[in-house]
Design brief:
This is Lipoprotein. The chain is of the alpha/beta class. It has a single domain, classed as Glycoside hydrolase/deacetylase (TIM Barrel, Alpha-Beta Barrel), CATH 3.20.20.370. Helix content is about 35%, strand content about 10%. It has ten helices and eight strands. Strands 1, 2, 3, 6, 7 and 8 form a six-stranded parallel sheet that branches. A two-stranded parallel ribbon has the order 4-5. About 55% of the residues are buried. Bound molecules: zinc ion. The site of zinc ion has 6 residues, from loops.
Amino acid sequence: MRLRHLIAVLLLSASACSAGHEHTVARPRGRATAARHTGPAVPATPAPPSPRHMVFHGARDSGMVALTFDADMTPGMWRSLDAGRIKSSYDRRIIGTLDATHTPATIFATGMWIRRYPAVTKTLAADPLLEFANHSYEHSAFTAPCYGLPVLPAHDRTEDVRHAARILRDHVPAPTPYFRFPGGCHDQGAVRAVLAAGVTPVQWDVISGDAFGHDPHAITRTVLKEAKGGSIVVMHLNGAPTAPETHAALPGIITGLRARGLRLVKVSELLAAQSASRP
Ligand SMILES: [Zn+2]
């Protein structure tokens, strides 16, 4: 997958979030005590829980799983859309399946994706099954190296998160205060930079493999094999070429997880259950 990912990044100037690299980045131990809530609060009604530390999954005894879809957009992807090399970077079939099966989900959207698809964003934001979160402005990396993505200077990281948050607030009535690192790449300084913007980094514990995955059955099998109570599953909303088979894998994922008695929820509900379980 790593090789395929690298080739695709080089060819398309695109990017993806789930290249199986979680093991290559440092996880902060415990709470990031150096962070301060210095940025403007992200309005949300009601306010979902926003832990002051990085999140990889929810409570294991919750019986819940959160399906998440990253809406990537880089300047290179934008140019490919303009030039007609990519027809669309929004696979509406994914939302069609979520709606048809009454499945909640969380969309981590880049600011550039929202700017490209403002009407779609408005429609999705009005769907009670869906909630929105922040995936940076233009999907630049918060640490280097990160799969060939351009890297933000360290002093620009907090402002990038705030920039994307402003675009979110302009298009989504009640965005969640969650953020996902482009490419998943982070270190403790990057985590502090995100927390300083008033949002919580939310990663995943299940990589679906939908990024450049061309076998929908393999994607479905991977998720059903690895997901358990509390899991956060990362997938993509972009469709081909970055995530060509997500739409085809999704029905089996939803059916299979529910058959195991797991309840599919938004990230905010998963984390609310986690907060409630704490003393
Ligand atoms: Zn991404």
